[in-house]
Amino acid sequence: MSGQENISESVQADFLKKNTEYAATFRDGDLPLPPARHALVLACMDARLHVEKVLGIKNGECHCVRNAGGRASDDALRSIAISQRLLGTKEVHIIHHTDCGMLTFTNQQLATKIREDLGVDVGDRDFLPFLDLRESVLDDIRTIRESPLVATGTKVHGYIYEVETGKLKVVE
Amino acid sequence: MSGQENISESVQADFLKKNTEYAATFRDGDLPLPPARHALVLACMDARLHVEKVLGIKNGECHCVRNAGGRASDDALRSIAISQRLLGTKEVHIIHHTDCGMLTFTNQQLATKIREDLGVDVGDRDFLPFLDLRESVLDDIRTIRESPLVATGTKVHGYIYEVETGKLKVVE
Ligand SMILES: [Zn+2]
Ligand SMILES: [Zn+2]
User: Fold this and answer.
1) What average pLDDT is seen over chain B?
2) In Å, how far are A97, A105, B75 from A109, measured between CA atoms?
3) What's the confidence (pLDDT) of residue B8?
4) Keyword annotations for this protein (chains A, B) (predicted)?
5) For residue B9, how many other CB atoms are within 10 A of its CB?
6) Per-residue model confidence as pLDDT tens digits over B138-148
7) Neighbours of B65 (CB within 10 A)
8) What is the number of the ligand closest to the CA of A100?
9) What is the ipTM of this complex?
């Protein structure tokens, strides 16, 4: 057995151990499927942004969509459409953050790294990096507001989370 | 001002109030960008699945990607590729869950609802619903393992989370 397998099994073992502790005091088994606050949060996958904790969201309150950057990707729009049409959410809160990995590369650089590491040519695929945090939030607000999959008049709010301070700043 | 605007502003006001409390005791300002546990979790956006809490993940430990269903969508593969190539994660943990909204509709039904509600024709777009929870986890494990964007030999684990009990079950 390789060292990598040991590491991986140890993460799984830890998840299962911690989950046993979580389930032991679990009392939320009767929460309904639709989010109680009728809201969806779209945030970066960053390991330092525990969305529910940072925003004080309780169990069952908000949908939470996350991807590299917290971008309004086509798949995020799929999730928002399902959330709105089938589960009654009415607003979107977008969170990007300081020290984001998406500020550190260009599509061309990542394509080169993927070719070198994996031997795969990704062509001109857009991995959705950005150069400016505030602009990326504003771009994604606009993308969601203008998407035909999103209900007209949906409130879309944008924020920057500071990983250095734990503070959330509204982007206006 | 409409009632809807009031509701939306109240969610934002609550997020900012709760975040002020969070930031007041924040002590993690020096965490590095790469996830400490070298792992990425891919889970459903469901409001009852607070991933870090359910798995006992600490700040800075794991990337967390979420979408409708926790599916291995093309955009999830984008996030995984960035996570692996630029930020050193080595394994993926996929979490689907009981009572998932993705079990409640077909593409055709959602297309009809979008046409009726929004006046938009989505054609034969796949919103990635599923009929069987265990099969959907196995499908997504396979999709990730076989993706050219994912490093060969990446460990991919699958789970079903029970929203009724708080328990995580391994899919094998
Ligand atoms: Zn980020
Ligand atoms: Zn779900």
Assistant:
1) 95
2) 22, 6, 19
3) 58
4) Lyase, Metal-binding, Zinc
5) 14
6) 999 999 999 99
7) 27
8) 1
9) 0.96
